[in-house]
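Renewal narrative, Specific Aim 1. Our central claim is that a sequence can be written position by position from structural information alone. The example that follows is taken directly from our test logs and has not been curated for this report. It begins with the structure tokens describing the chain, in the order in which they were read.
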């Protein structure tokens, strides 16, 4: 932060910095500061109005497009090379289990063969059983 902002944000520092000014000078500064605040509030209000108008226009365009049966990808596909855009990413189907084993609690479990090997299966393999023994047929 600049020194000016540090001074203006702390009442003690501000009081010390303005100590030598007269009441009329302080009131003049106050008037100028009030004007700055009013201008900033006006600017913020105008920006908010513009944002609101933009949101309304977007909502209106969406309704119009939906009524016409047009999707955004229909518009953009020509602009970016003529290829059809994917509508949504679909999750891939989970891989089917490849191995079946029994864990320490006696429950039957399965493993797809991807990712970290389950502890119970790892323990069996470490004890000399081949992984092929656990293949689901």
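The sequence written for that structure reads:
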């Amino acid at each position: 932060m600049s020194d000016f902002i540090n001074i203006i944000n702390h009442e003690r520092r501000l009081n010390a910095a303005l100590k030598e000014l007269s009441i009329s000078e302080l009131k003049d500064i106050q008037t100028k500061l009030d004007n700055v605040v009013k201008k900033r509030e006006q600017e913020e209000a105008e920006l908010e109005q513009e944002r609101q108008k933009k949101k309304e226009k977007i909502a209106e365009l969406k309704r119009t497009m939906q009524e016409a049966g047009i999707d955004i990808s229909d518009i953009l596909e020509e602009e970016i090379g003529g290829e059809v855009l994917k509508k949504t990413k679909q999750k891939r189907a989970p891989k089917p289990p490849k191995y079946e084993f029994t864990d320490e609690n006696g429950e039957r479990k399965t493993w797809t063969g991807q990712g970290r090997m389950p502890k119970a299966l790892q323990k069996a393999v470490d004890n000399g059983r081949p992984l092929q023994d656990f293949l689901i047929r």
